[in-house]
Prior knowledge:
The chain is an alpha+beta fold and 426 residues long. The protein has helices at residues 18-30, 75-88, 98-101, 115-119, 136-139, 141-150, 167-179, 186-195, 224-232, 238-244, 260-263, 276-287, 300-306, 383-397, 410-415; strands spanning 10-13, 35-42, 45-56, 61-62, 69-72, 202-204, 218-219, 272-274, 291-292, 295-296, 323-324, 329-335, 338-347, 351-356, 361-367, 369-370, 405-406.
Amino acid sequence: xxxxxxxxxxxxxxxxxxxxxxxxxxxxxxxxxxxxxxxxxxxxxxxxxxxxxxxxxxxxxxxxxxxxxxxxxxxxxxxxxxxxxxxxxxxxxxxxxxxxxxxxxxxxxxxxxxxxxxxxxxxxxxxxxxxxxxxxxxxxxxxxxxxxxxxxxxxxxxxxxxxxxxxxxxxxxxxxxxxxxxxxxxxxxxxxxxxxxxxxxxxxxxxxxxxxxxxxxxxxxxxxxxxxxxxxxxxxxxxxxxxxxxxxxxxxxxxxxxxxxxxxxxxxxxxxxxxxxxxxxxxxxxxxxxxxxxxxxxxxxxxxxxxxxxxxxxxxxxxxxxxxxxxxxxxxxxxxxxxxxxxxxxxxxxxxxxxxxxxxxxxxxxxxxxxxxxxxxxxxxxxxxxxxxxxxxxxxxxxxxxxxxxxxxxxxxxxxxxxxxxxxxx
Length: 426
């Protein structure tokens, strides 16, 4: 049998962005990439949509133009956009207590938690004390509702913050169901009010009719020495980390997302599936002022609120130091004396969708060959050289001659004395 020859990475690249495709091809030549897609919008127009490698290594199925990737926690950004849409529609208020909209929530010390405290991971609800199943959202929603309502915070609300890997979307889903006049789930609201009107191919819970377009998820082995290193220097709450990342009980393997029954569950924390082009389009719209082809998704004021830092410092759940907004991950950008936040959300195994309002640019990356905790394992993150090259191309187009620094934490900003936190522009 002859050796399989993989097709070269291909796709669409607008004039001025050719170097991004070259970097993408170089990553495949070096063996860094195995199966992925990258896309970008600039000033309201698609400028990059490239893909390569294999979507399914078992049957050697190539990644195609319409392949839809698993975006994991990047889905939380879609949840944040949904809440922002409801806030703009005067259905919700960020500063209002959750219990105003969901009275049963006011139990066990949660009566004063606000919507924005929940969104910024300050509510203390990073896990559930009793284990649960994601499938309950379909099979026993009342049981899941009761468990969420009864949960006691793991720390006094608004005194610290910790990432809510699985619970965030579950709580937001209950809130949306309570306030929407049609009693839609967050997934359905997002589809009806955002994805479909704006032609964004992204689903929170994938309909089985599209399953033939998804790749096969291939979790990679973790370097045990590096993992031990992380655990020895962990700065968060070890027990909270273990509990938060060991739930739910029906997510017993990363490969469970290869099961169409599990993938169709409308979980706003993790079950987002779509094309890189679709996610880049969403990011491009919010980066470009919230309008597209005469339709308004969000006002500039609402988009600004998504870029405001709400939590930073040591995360009790992850031990890391990301900056969070109202449901968003904020990435500090420094260019000379100017600084601002790029915003979006990362996802397990290197997935990302991000928006840079300064350059009116949105981009997305998805891959099926995933490693956990890439930043903490200090492994090369495959989307970063693509993003760096993307903005180098934009600098050239806009005659900007200055180094762009893309940081992860406020600690990095302060250590480098690049700019004070208070001077970060919105």
